[in-house]
Predict the 3D structure of the following.
Amino acid sequence: MRIRVILSASVFACAATLASAPVHAQQTLTIASWGGAYQKAQRQAWFDVVEKELGIKIKEDTTSGLADVRAQVASGRPTWDIVQQGNYSCAILDKEGKVEKLDPAILAVPGIPANMKGEGWVSNLVYSAALAWNDAKYKDKKPSGWADMWDVKTFPGGRTMRRSPVYNLEAALIADGVPMDKLYPLDVDRALKKLKEIRPNVTVWWASGAQSAQVLKDGDVDMAQIWNGRAQDLAKSGAKVALTFNQQILLTDCWVVPKGAPNKELAMKAIQIMSRPEVQARISLFINYGPANADAFKTGIIKPEVAASLPSAPENAKKGFVLDANYWAANLDELTKKFDLFIQE
Amino acid sequence: MSTAAANDLSIASRGERHSLNADALKRSERGEQVRLLALTLPALLLVGIVALAPIGWLSGLSFVGPNGLTLVNYQRLIHPSYELTLITTFQLAFLVTALCLILGYPLAYLASQMSSRGASLVLLCVLFPFWTSLLVRTYAWLVILQRRGLVNTWLRDLGVIDEPLRLVHNFTGTAIGMTHIMLPFMVLPLYAAMKNISPDYMRAASNLGASPIRAFWNVFVPLSRPGIFAGLIIVFVLSLGFYVTPALLGGGRVMMWSMQIERSIAVYSDWGAASALGVVLLVITMGILWLVSRLASIGSFMERA
C-alpha cells in the first residue's frame, strides 16, 4: 500500500516535471575568464545581467590564455562557449581560424572603436601600458612621454621595461619622433636602434606585472613602462609613484567563441548584451578597469572621479593610441626572437 | 633383457633425475628472479611512467609540426638568440659549479674533521636554507643586493662606495643567488665521501714524512674524488635547468635555456618548439656527463697504473 503511494507520487512528480520542463529547462552557457577578483567583477557587472535577460545560467571556468583555447578546439569538442583573452591572442586565434566569426549584430553595437574588434573577436576591457616614475626623485620637472624615458640627462636613474617587443618598439618609435597614428607597420630596425640607446639604462626587463611594481617601489628603478593598474595600486598604497596617460598604449582584453562551441547562438547573444554601453559601464563599479565601449562613459553610470583614473575614458584615451592587435598577431614570433637577441647582446 | 640395457636404463633415469634436479634449481632461480622483479616492479613502473615515457613522448613531440613529421622545430633553433642563451646557460652552470666547489670543499672538510656534534651543527647550517622555499631565498637575495639593499647601504655608510654597485638584475646577481642555493648539493656528497676517508691514511702519510699540505693534496683530495664528481655533476645538471632564480635576479637579460622553453609555451604555445629545446638540453647534458665519466675513469685508470 505504502509502496503504491510512493510510486504513484513519484510518477506524478515525474509527470509534473516533464510537463513543466519547457518552462524551467535552463540553458547554460560556459564562460572562461582570468579568474580571481577580475572574474568576480565580471560576474557581478555582466554575467548576472546576461543570466537575467536571457533566462539562462552561466557556468564559469578559468583560462590561462591562448594554449587553452587551442587545446579545446583541437579536441573537436570545446566545453567553453565564450573565452576571455589578452588582445593580440584574440587576433591570433582569429587568424588561425580557431574561433567562430561573430554575429554582425555584435560588431554593429555602437561605441566600440574599430581597432578594438575583428571578425572573430570583440574587446570588453581596456587597460594601458603607461609611463610611471618615482615622484620623489623627479620633484620639479615631471616626465610627460616616452621621449623622457630616453632622456637620462634630465631624468637620471634606472628604467624598467617589459621583456617583450610589444610596447617597447612602439615606445621607441614615439621617442624617436614618429607620430602615434603613423606607427604601424612598425619600422623595426629604427625602433631597435632607438632601444639600443636606452638599453644600458634599463635595469630590469620585467616579466610580470608584479615585478615591474616591485622594482619601482623598492627604488631599483626610477622610471617604468608599466600597466596603469600596477602603478595606480602603488600610488594608492602610499608609494611616491606618479603616472601619465600621455602617449599611453591602450590594451584590451577580449571575447572569443571557440570554434565548435556547444552553444554558439546563445554565446553570440550574451556577447552582444555584454558589449552594450550600459552593461559595459557596470564593470567600473566593481573593479578599476575601463570598458571598451566608449559610449559607456556617456551613460552616467561611471562617476567622473572614477573615469579620470581609467585609461579608456575619452579624456585619457585621446592622449594615447590603441595597440595594433593584428600587427602583433602576424609578427609576434619573429619580433620576439629579434628582441630576445637584442636584450641578451 | 641384458645388463647393458639395464645399465642404459639406469643411466637414463639417473640423467633424468639429474635434469630434474637442474630444473628445480633453475625453477627456484627463476622464482627468485620473478620475486625480485615483483619487488622492483613498482619502482621500475614509476620510473617508466614518470620519467622515461614523458621523455620519449617529449622527443616524439619535437619532431611533429602542424603538417606531420618535420624538423622545423629544430630548424627554428638555429638563431643567434638561442645560441646566446645556450652560451649563457652553460657559462652560468660552469661558474656556479666552480664557485660551489671552491666554497663547499673547505666547508665539507671542516665538517668531516669535527666532532660529530660540531659536524651536525655545520651540516644543520648547510641544510637550514633547504627548509625555506626557493622563492623566499631568491627574494632574500634581491633584498640584500638591490640598489637600496643591505650591501649597498652598508658600503655607502662605510664610505667605501659613492654610487651603488650593480649587484643584481644581471649575471653577477644570478650567479650569487644560484651558488647559495646550490651549495648544499655540493657539500653533502663531499662530506659523505670525506667521512669515509680513514684518518689512518693521513697519519701514515705524515709518518712517512709528508708535510700536512702534501698529505692533504696527495692523499686526502684524491680519496675525496668520488664526492667531488658527485657534487660537480649534481650541481652542474641542476644549474643547467634553473629557472626561478635567473628569472628573478637576472633582470630579464640573463636568459636561460629553461626560460626559452617557458617562452615557447607562454608566448607561442608551441609545444613542438619547447620539446625540441628540451631535447637539445638533454642531449648536450648527457654528452657532457658521458665525457666527464670517461675522463673520470681515465683518471682513475692512470692512477692505478
